[in-house]
Design goal:
The complex is a heterodimer of chains A (406) and B (88).
Chain A (H helix, E strand, L loop, with lengths): L7 E10 L5 H10 L5 E2 L12 E2 L13 H6 L2 H17 L5 H5 L1 E6 L5 H13 L9 H5 L3 H10 L6 E3 L5 H14 L5 E8 L4 H8 L24 E9 H6 L6 E10 L9 H15 L8 E3 L6 H15 L7 E3 L2 H4 L6 H15 L1 E2 L22 E2 L4 E8 L3 E8 L2
Parallel strand pairs in A: 4-5, 4-6, 9-10, 9-13
Antiparallel strand pairs in A: 1-7, 1-8, 2-3, 6-7, 8-14, 11-12, 13-14
Chain B lengths: L2 H13 L19 H15 L20 H17 L2
Helix pairs in contact in B: 1-2, 1-3
Classes of the chains: A alpha/beta (406), B mainly alpha (88).
Chain lengths: 406, 88
């Protein structure tokens, strides 16, 4: 085949998160503005000062995996595999031998097997034992999920894991997009996963003092911090002609990607870095601000992010900001850290395909420093042709995807 | 449960077989236990008998723990239990 710029489309999606164990349930929750955040159910929760999170409920690993798989699959890998199965089933894609060599898996996660670290530190430090299970390393490593997906579907092309904190999934999907567009790959399984809701995972976040103890209220003047979530979302990104030739349903087109580094501060965001990433994604997609109808915000619900993000959007969009909708679905599913951009891409697909804009719930008081249409509390019907999905990570690493309606 | 039966139960579980199908002359490979499965079985043996098994997966034949057959594993465990629990 010849190598040259290709169009990239999404032909399958899968998820498990606090709003639901599949895409349909998750999108229904987003349409209804339902909140997946609640009291945490985990060991030693009484020793945590933050006791809420967007936890995956009603999940039985034994219903999906056998004993030997469970011995090897951390919770973040299990979530990834479940999401990947749904995405593959929806896509209906199959691979010839040559195509499987031109297809791979690029996933984002910030922490990888955090539950495995936590459980085994307990074993050696708290319980004083001197041996751990032999699979601790293959279970906790950040690339475990990507490797197991590649094995499950015999995908033998470029496969790896991206860890850029809260931007991990967007970086992963952006790279997968570029690999197909360049002609290097035919299809990619991409997205991300996180499962940090264990004692050590939450305790570490408490230390930063940026967590809310009651709710995630992005853009609201009375917001008081972020709330962690967990789960995964995985997508089939596919070269457009390949998808068309096999008559696949196209959910939307991935049109552009922008990534920048603030090179400024390890935790405080920079409006300039975010602006350059949004402009870069639009330029890459051939979009101007007037064409973008919706932004899925990074919108963490912290004082610093929401103010800085709104300032950068207002600056990039100028007069076009007046008719732009921007919402943060983290208010419903929590912040999935390295998996967050993947779950949030579902809201982007819903906007483009179904004409439904997911709301920012928990919105109580307008903040003059966040004076944009944040789609407060209730979903809205609107036809949009192009959207952006923002992710701005600790460490000042920004990754913005641009998508268009099919 | 006798030590021998306990070792066989661990090996059988790893091989996904009934204990009665595990014979003394079987090697781990005969039972379909791969290198990762072998390491997991050794971990289970250490936990069950509270012993430390000197086994290096890089050089199984040089380890002071004979894994050539089920019978050899049972004798090696018997010896380790005796050595490590006598001194305690």
């Amino acid at each position: 085949m010849s190598y040259g710029p290709r169009r990239v489309v999404i032909t399958g999606a899968g998820t498990i998160n606090s709003l639901g164990h599949d895409v349909a349930t998750t999108l229904e929750a987003m349409r209804e503005g339902r909140c997946g955040i609640g009291p945490l159910d985990l060991r030693d929760v009484e020793r945590l000062s933050v006791q809420i999170g967007g936890q995956v409920r009603g999940y039985d690993e034994q219903a999906h995996f056998n004993r030997q798989q469970i011995a090897l699959y951390d919770r973040f890998t299990q979530f990834t595999l479940l999401a990947a199965r749904q995405a593959m089933a929806q896509s209906g894609i199959s691979f010839t031998d040559e195509e499987s060599e031109m297809s791979g898996v690029v996933l984002g996660t910030a922490g990888g097997g955090v539950n495995t670290w936590d459980e085994n530190y307990r074993t050696v430090y708290e319980e004083g034992k001197n041996r751990v299970h032999p699979f601790v390393v293959p279970k906790l490593m950040n690339n475990a999920a990507a490797s197991h997906v590649s094995m499950e579907y015999n995908l033998r092309g470029p496969s790896f894991t991206v860890a850029t904190a809260c931007s991990s999934s967007n970086h992963a999907m952006g790279l997968a997009f570029q690999m197909i567009r360049s002609g290097m790959c035919r299809a990619m399984l991409t997205g991300g996963s996180e499962a940090m809701l264990c004692f050590g995972g939450v305790k570490a976040w408490e230390g930063l003092r940026v967590m809310s103890k009651d709710a995630c209220r992005p853009f609201s003047a009375n917001r008081n911090g972020m709330v962690q979530g967990e789960g995964a979302a995985v997508f089939v990104f596919e070269e457009y002609e390949h998808a068309r030739a096999r008559g696949a349903e196209i959910l939307c087109e991935v049109a552009g990607f922008g990534m920048t580094a603030d090179a400024a501060d390890i935790v405080m965001p920079s409006a300039q870095g975010a602006e350059r990433a949004m402009r870069g994604a639009m330029r890459d997609a051939g979009l101007n601000p007037e064409q973008v109808g919706y932004i899925n915000a990074h919108g963490t619900g912290t004082a610093a992010n929401d103010k800085s993000e709104c300032a950068s959007v207002a600056h990039v969009f100028g007069a076009a900001a007046d008719r732009l909708m921007i919402s943060s679905t983290k208010s419903m599913h929590g912040h999935l850290i390295g998996g967050t951009g993947a779950v949030e891409l579902l809201a982007c697909i819903m906007a483009l395909k179904d004409g439904v804009i997911a709301p920012t719930i928990g919105y109580e008081e307008p903040d003059p420093e966040c004076a944009l249409d944040v789609v407060p509390n209730e979903a809205r019907e609107a036809k949009v042709d192009a959207v952006l999905s923002n992710a701005f990570a600790f460490g000042g690493l920004n990754a913005v995807l641009a998508l268009k309606a099919a | 449960m006798e030590l021998r039966d306990k070792v066989i139960a661990i090996i059988a579980e790893q091989a996904m077989l009934e204990p009665s199908d595990v014979k003394p002359e079987h090697s781990p490979a005969d039972l379909g236990i791969d290198s990762l499965g072998l390491v997991e079985s050794i971990f289970a043996i250490e936990e069950a008998f509270d012993i430390s098994v000197p086994f290096n997966a890089n050089a199984p034949e040089e380890s002071d723990f004979d894994i050539s057959s089920v019978a050899a594993i049972v004798s090696a465990v018997e010896r380790l239990v005796q050595e490590q629990h006598a001194s305690a």
